[in-house]
Amino acid sequence: MAVQTLCCETSNQIDAIIERRGADPDSLIEILHAVQEEIGYLPCEVQEYVADRLGIAPGAVEGVVSFYSFFTTVPRGRHTVKVCQGTACYVRGGKRLLEAVSKHCGCGVGETSADMRFSLDVVRCVGACGLSPVMTVGDDVYERVKPTRVAEILAKYE
Ligand code: FES
User: Fold this and answer.
1) What is the pLDDT of residues 92-140, one digit of tens each?
2) Which of 36, 116, 148, 158 is spaced 20 to 30 A from 77 at the CA atom?
């Protein structure tokens, strides 16, 4: 299979990952994780290259990438913002909070801001229902967040 659109640096990065873990099709998920961590996302040409290196059909790689929500085929922002839309958060202002974050970032759920700072997602519950509404930025958790605090919170992240 010809993989012509992959730049040399990217193919070298993938080669190094596969060399470390072995070109074993059973390690596909692990390898895709490492590749996504290194490159940031898994576009078609990267999937095809991995398939080629492991000697498996591109469709098999595509199937795995599309099945698991932690894999992404588009570039993500430097920080992932998640706004909880579980019942407790939703009834205590989660919807308005989501609107405020979306407006501030200039992107919708599942999208990334134009400056690549933030990707916006929703979650169904982060286990802090008593302190709703809740949002997270990376590993940081913000509780009882009012829409008016969104700008101040997001200003901490470059
Ligand atoms: S519903 Fe939002 S933390 Fe549980």
Assistant:
1) 999 999 999 999 999 999 899 999 999 999 999 999 999 999 999 999 9
2) 148
Q: Which CATH number fits domain 79-154: 3.40.50.11810, 3.40.30.10, 3.40.605.10, 3.90.1530.30?
A: 3.40.30.10
Mutate to test the pocket of ligand 1, among 134, 135, 136 (most ligand atoms within 8 A of CB): 134
pTM for this model (two decimals): 0.76
Q: Which atom belonging to ligand 1 lies closest to the Cα atom of 86?
A: 1
Q: Which two tokens stand for residue 143?
A: 């509780």
- The answer, yes or no, to whether the previous bond of 133 is cis (omega within 30 of 0) is yes
Which region, left, alpha or beta, applies to residue 154 given φ > 0 means left and ψ of -120 to 50 means alpha? alpha
Atom of ligand 1 at shortest distance to CA of 126? 3
Region class of 14: left (phi > 0), else alpha (psi between -120 and 50), else beta? alpha
Task: List the Cα angle 58/62/68 in 5-degree steps.
Answer: 150
CA of 20 to the centre of ligand 1 (A): 40
